[in-house]
Amino acid sequence: MKDEPNLVEMRDITKGFPGVLANDRVSFAARAGEIHALLGENGAGKSTLMSILTGLYRPDEGEIIVAGRRIELHSPRDAIRNGIGMVYQHFRLIPPFSVAENVILGLDAPRFLLNMPEIEKKVAALSESYGLRVDPKVKVWQLSVGEQQRVEIVKMLYRGARILILDEPTAVLTPQETRELFLTLRRMAGNGHAVIFITHKLHEVMEVADRITVLRGGRSVGTVEKKDTNPASLARMMVGREIPPAPSRSEGPRGEKILELQAVQAMSDKGLPALRGVSLTIRAGELLGIAGVSGNGQKELAEVVTGLRPVQAGRLYIKGKDLTNRSPKEIIEAGVSHVPEDRLGTGLIPNLGVLENVILKEYRRPPISRGPLLDRRAARERSEDLVRDFQVKVAYLDLPVKLLSGGNLQRLLLAREISAAPSLIVAVYPVRGLDIGATETVHNLLLQQKARGAAILLISEDLEEILHLSDRVAVMYEGEIQGVLPSSEARLEEIGLLMAGMKKEATTA
Amino acid sequence: MNKQSQLTLTLEKRLAPSRWISFLVPTISVAMALLFGAIFLLMTGHDPLKVYEIMAEGAFGSKYGLSETVVKSIPLMLTGLGVSIAFKMLLWNIGAEGQLYMGAFAASWVALSFPDASPGFLLSAMFLAGFLGGALWGLLPALPRAFLGVNEVITSLMLNYVAILWVDYLVYGPWKDPKGFNFPLTAPFTPSADLPTFFGTRIHLGLVVALAAAAILNVVLWRTRWGYEIRVIGESPAAARYAGMNIARNILLVMFLSGGLAGLAGMTEVAGITHRLQHGISPGYGYSAIIIAWLSKLSPGAVVLVSFLLGALLVGGYSIQSSGLPAATVSMLQGAILFFVLGSEILTKYRLVLVRRGERRAN
Lengths: 509, 363
What we know:
Helix content of chain B: 55-70%
Radius of gyration of chain B: 23 Å
Order of helices and strands of chain B: EHHHHHHHHHHHHHE
Distance between the termini of chain A: 33 Å
Largest interface: A-B, 35 and 21 residues
CATH superfamily of the largest domain in chain A: P-loop containing nucleotide triphosphate hydrolases
Helix content of chain A: 25-40%
Strand order of the largest sheet of chain B: 1-2
Structural class of chain A: alpha/beta
Strand order of the largest sheet of chain A: 6-7-8-3-9-10
Number of domains of chain A: 2
Strand content of chain A: 25-35%
Oligomer: heterodimer
Number of helices of chain B: 13
Shape of chain A: globular
Structural class of chain B: mainly alpha
Number of strands of chain A: 22
Radius of gyration of chain A: 25 Å
């Protein structure tokens, strides 16, 4: 297998988006017959790199070589013509259509008459040969998620894909389905395909990959053979060098318990278990950081605490009061502020002006409301105060907030949430996409609130940020808290292992 | 290569649609719709200018014509306001027509049941009944929408047929006037149930009700907590939930109000125009209301203006029938107007730009 030449090679790929360099001279190569894992945290540039390989984006610089020939990819159609196929995390299937109909969707051949029995036979034979059990006549909506994924794979094989990219394929699968998928991938590699497997889960990498390329911050950290590496060293490659402990963290007095979760369970939007018995406490004047790769229940955790997502089991207490499954309004009134992940759309209303966004949570209370009426003048004064105190740069107060820059948006959002003098602040990815200056402002505001005595729940995928700000760090993986560590004692490597779900190995090591 | 210098048209998003663009685009659209209608008139051997002139003359050219235009605009305003407030919250109430019929039915029931009541009491009770009739009919599709997520477009539309056929059942059956020569209508109401009229024309008190409703809605939308909630929910349901707003309750309230306004239109039609309940009391006001809501960008003040213009179109339509054109010409023009306005909607949000293919546009 080693002597196999590279089936696909990407050389010095650079791709920038406004404000970020998603890929910075990344090189990557996969051979026929191997399973090659592309490992990295969210935002490391994995998806961008693969979107370039599937013709979705065009690189600013760099070249792509398939089977020894330099190619230009203008569209996903071009990619499939060159034998490159991708199975996305979110399936591209049409539920009321049959499996066979989905497989031939978008193909030019046959041009006019569809001989479905013939096509079904072909699809059946193809799926048989790869051990992808799926009935071509069945409608897609009747299939389980795992079976739908098989249809996606068959779709790519039917199109003659020799290079198969799977984007976090196990995210939606049960453990049994995962095992079956791995067998299929092995069989495909055995048939001379190159399988590229995007993931951030270390144990999967160790289980199925032959080689691993690690990306971090848009750069390639390196490619290693699985037999030459171990989870700890991969974790280190993934999260970077050890970071010096944060300089001075103001240790304010710890007060009463503000937030307490007891064995909370909740479902994701898809109806799958997202939180599986989460327990944690935060006291007044304490900042608890939740580390973890996004998609492991952090979003659901924040929504449960703010009343936006129902709790299936367990209890939620705020300042000792049982607020399990109470409305968002009651939780706001209990003194909980929320800086949501989706700033523009949830935290702020894009088409409404600054003023109308400022009063979003205060409009029910005087002085903004006078009986059933809104006091426009009071609202204007309130907005002027906030804009001045938090240095939000706006031309005028009726300016739709969608026209504000990212840093200004977040300042406005924080201004509103902080000005309510909350007992608890839930901040979800509060500096994502912000530049250094804005990041610092947000961090300082959060620390000020902590010093004032607020409890803060900070969710972030940036370990550096978490270690820098938190008093304690809780690591989430697949809806569970893997461990809670005082951040002064937390070692990056240990957190990295916990983030990748290597709890047992980490504790026994 | 020639490919390099190929010019193509692309759409570029406008940051903030300017005020005059959002006025200019619909105006041009209406002009385009009239132009489109002119082609059809030409093809059927009519002089479009002549036809439009007769229409304008019929709608505005005399005291009678003008007053009739106002008369027609009253139910259009009330249903248009009802539809607008629902649309503002992204509730697609297509059921104004049925709500109008149910309002007419409820008001008629009051008028027929208490013929001896004093005018003040009778009219007040009819207003209340008309509002409630439409409001409860509007609530019917709102309940499954609020609690089960059932699409209100289909349910509110279907309920139109139920309401229209219910009224037909009454006027062809139990409520039919025994002295009515077998026509599908009820006995005339007592004179106490007549809405006061103005200037010796058919313009009735409904105009005052409609204008007051527009003024009140304007205040509600822009000056009250409830109006703020409606606007926030309409703009971003996720933000509304995040801010602790009760979306289900607002769906019920807004549909209640929306249906109630359409119900008032039904009441003012029977009490102000027909003075009885009869088959076909609305020539589709509840559907025209959808066009009005869209043309007026859901602004109550604009609804008043646009209703007047569509009222003129209806009255103008009647006057061209004498020159051998079918009344359906007006329906066609209405349809064309909506079509052109919706089609040009994109131009208020985007601008057309010429770019060379192959070149990347600077940010």
